[in-house]
């Protein structure tokens, strides 16, 4: 069921989302060659806790028998890792790497979710283009995140923009409604048909998250039961914000 949030609930969403954005900012400022993804995890966790929030990804159940809950406060996915990379002292960033950081702050009963792909020093041109297209795909999508449009309009805008730029969206994972639960209805694929799906109504809160890979190739899951990588070993990018549908333009809650 897709819920419509009250004014009071929206205020709580704003707060959780602001803290998630602050945690991203702290991570971004710390990224440099030589730092481990474990250190970035601690920076994000400390930022969230200092603002009275909890890192909601920590302890998130895998849903897979024999795979433990997620151990990190952030998902830290380096280079060909698409999503759900586990932070580690052994993963040290180096010049030319990219890292996708996905994190969720939980405060006062509500969640704020956002993801960014960062560069470590200078990266090659094509990788920078991948990152730019992924971010822009989010903004192409939210042009339709308005009263009067349907969910499929957002999905179609994201997918068609990515594909017209020669990349592919990951089809196995999708955005989602978000509020009291990290993942709520509706599911929001990064592809779809315009004019289809639920009607968008003010008070809906949605996490919209293009995950982009090079054309034609798929993804694989590592034996850790979490990390998703590209099948062909090429880089992947991710960009996500939690938004609020309003009477007018959407509000992006996880941008400072
Ligand atoms: Mg996320």
Helix content: 25-40%
Provide the list of bound ligands, each named once.
magnesium ion
CATH class: Alpha Beta
- Provide the succession of SSEs: HHEEEEEHHEEEEEEEEEE
Q: In what range is the share of β-strand residues?
A: 15-25%
Q: How many H/I helices?
A: 4
Q: Say how many strands there are.
A: 15
Total domain units = 1
Q: Provide the residue-averaged pLDDT.
A: 97
Q: Describe the biggest sheet?
A: 5 strands, antiparallel
Low-confidence stretches: none
Quickly give the structural class.
Answer: alpha+beta
Give the C-alpha Rg. Answer: 17 Å
The CATH architecture can be given as Alpha-Beta Complex
CATH topology: Creatine Amidinohydrolase
CATH-defined superfamily: Creatinase/methionine aminopeptidase superfamily
Broad shape: globular
Distance between the termini: 29 Å
Strand order of the largest sheet: 8-7-9-14-15
Task: Summarize the structure in words.
With 256 residues, the protein is α+β, with helices and mostly antiparallel strands. It has one domain: Creatinase/methionine aminopeptidase superfamily (Creatine Amidinohydrolase), CATH 3.90.230.10. 27% of the residues lie in helices and 25% in strands. It is built from four helices and 15 strands. The strands form four sheets. Strands 8-7-9-14-15 form a five-stranded antiparallel sheet, with helices on both faces. The longest helix has 24 residues, at 7-30. The two termini are 29 Å apart. The mean pLDDT is 97. Magnesium ion binds at residues 102, 104, 113, 115, 207, 209, 240.
